[in-house]
């Protein structure tokens, strides 16, 4: 019986010879933060058809390096009122982004220009940098021309 026990110890020692103790596994790398884009629909009482076409173009836009896109139900102005920051400034836009838990905002503004022309500005805003990443602006002679041209304007603002 002693012989069998001795043989067992020899086998066990031989199996463990040359093995180094295992180092603890490195902790997994933290997941990379996801970039979230909030798309805000356009609003305009003066140019409702252009605003509708613009909102549709914004909602279907593809922005590079974005992991998740959320199309909001309310406009930029409504969110600004809700957070009590209504100035058209980088600080207010950054506050809008934070309130929506987004890293980027995509929004458009319509304004009446001389002779009832439509001025449209599309902005891709970087919330983390607190600055516009890209802006595209165009003056259209009519609302019909604006409605027809918004897709190209949104594409211009969202392409790298």
Structural features, described:
This protein is an alpha/beta fold and about 160 residues long. The chain is about 40% helix and about 25% strand. It has one domain (about 35-160): 3-Layer(aba) Sandwich (Rossmann fold), CATH 3.40.50. The chain is built from five helices and five strands, in the order αβαβααβββα. β1 (about 35-40), α2 and β2 (about 70) form a beta-alpha-beta unit.
The amount of beta strand, in percent, is 15-25%
Order of helices and strands: HEHEHHEEEH
Number of helices: 5
CATH superfamily: TolB, N-terminal domain
Mean pLDDT score: 88
Instruction: Let me know the largest β-sheet.
Output: 5 strands, mixed
CATH topology: Rossmann fold
Assign an overall shape.
elongated
Gyration radius from CA atoms, angstroms: 29 Å
Level of helix content? 25-40%
Q: Which CATH architecture is right?
A: 3-Layer(aba) Sandwich
């Amino acid at each position: 019986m002693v012989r069998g026990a001795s043989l067992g110890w020899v086998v066990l020692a031989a199996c463990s010879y040359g093995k180094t103790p295992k180092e603890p596994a490195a902790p997994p790398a933290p997941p990379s933060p996801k970039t979230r884009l909030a798309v805000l629909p356009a609003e305009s009482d003066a140019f409702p058809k252009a605003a509708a076409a613009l909102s549709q173009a914004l909602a279907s836009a593809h922005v590079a390096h974005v992991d998740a896109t959320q199309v909001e139900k309310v406009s930029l102005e409504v969110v600004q009122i809700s957070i009590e920051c209504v100035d058209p400034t980088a600080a207010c836009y950054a506050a809008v982004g934070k309130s929506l838990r987004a890293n980027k905002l995509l929004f458009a503004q319509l304004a009446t220009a001389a002779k009832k022309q439509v001025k449209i500005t599309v902005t891709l805003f970087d919330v983390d940098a607190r600055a516009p990443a890209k802006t595209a602006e165009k003056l259209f002679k009519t609302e019909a021309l604006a409605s027809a041209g918004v897709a190209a304007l949104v594409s211009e603002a969202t392409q790298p």
